[in-house]
Amino acid sequence: MDLNGKNVIYEGGFGGIGQHCLKEFLARGVKNLVIFDLQENASILQNLRTSYPEANIFFVQFDITDKNSITEAFKHAVEKIGHFDVLVNGCGMMDDTKVDLMIDINLMGLIHSTLTALPYMNKSTGGRGGLIVNISSVAGLEPTAVVAVYSAAKHGVTAFTRAMANPHFFEHFGISFITICPGITETGLVAHPHEKATFKFAEALAARLDTAERQSPEVCAQNLVELTTSGKNGGVYMLDLGEVKEITFPTVWAPVFKS
Ligand SMILES: NC(=O)c1ccc[n+]([C@@H]2O[C@H](COP(=O)([O-])OP(=O)(O)OC[C@H]3O[C@@H](n4cnc5c(N)ncnc54)[C@H](O)[C@@H]3O)[C@@H](O)[C@H]2O)c1
């Protein structure tokens, strides 16, 4: 998709990866940008408005763990910008000591957001279609034992997004889905990993993650936004250490029909 003149909603836009994606979207000529997040970051907002005066940039407060808050946020966004072409589900949290919150933010919230966005974008009911980008993780590709709950939530994101890219759904909604799986990226999310492990006795394994190579959020954001222009429906992309790799999955099961 050519992003010039398009309308984008970015959830979790003030986060470490999100704030760099906002700049990338604006640098590519996005016309209306709505940032959904838990809290406003006035200085990021001001900097963006100063750097990209030709774009309209709005903030809408929301809590992705609250379904009503998601519904209201989309209502407000559409009141401001009329329609949106791209939705990025980029909220996240990693702390396996908080099991329910892990699932609520990383998986349930993302599913509710996606399902809330569909009627606005749905081509078969007068919408314009578009693209939904769901941020999973390398922990949504490989079981990641130190944060087993986070890994489960992110596997859910990968599976949900791949399922939503079904050609039958695409024909109906006119919406493409891509899954982005960043590797370890230098943001607050991965700070103090030993405090975030599923089990206290495995803290040392988590602390070891701190010694792993990581990429900058800037390079992750550049690759993510590039994929919104070049990614294909159903594509699952690993963005690790500055490289992009499309991930393919074997078909290990298919239904056997009676006739
Ligand atoms: N940093 C990494 O190493 C890494 C690796 C793989 C995947 N990811 C994923 O990338 C995405 C962005 O992560 P990040 O590293 O920028 O993290 P971050 O902590 O810097 O940003 C997360 C964003 O989510 C928002 N958020 C959290 N809880 C929320 C809630 N209840 N309601 C609304 N917003 C909420 C935060 O306010 C923040 O803006 C997440 O989905 C994360 O899981 C990150």
Automatic annotation (TrEMBL):
GO terms for molecular function: alcohol dehydrogenase (NAD+) activity. It is an enzyme of class 1 (oxidoreductase). Keywords: NAD, Oxidoreductase. The keyword NAD applies. Signal peptide: none annotated. The keyword Methyltransferase does not apply. Homodimer. This is alcohol dehydrogenase. It comes from Zeugodacus cucurbitae (Melon fruit fly). The gene is ADH_1.
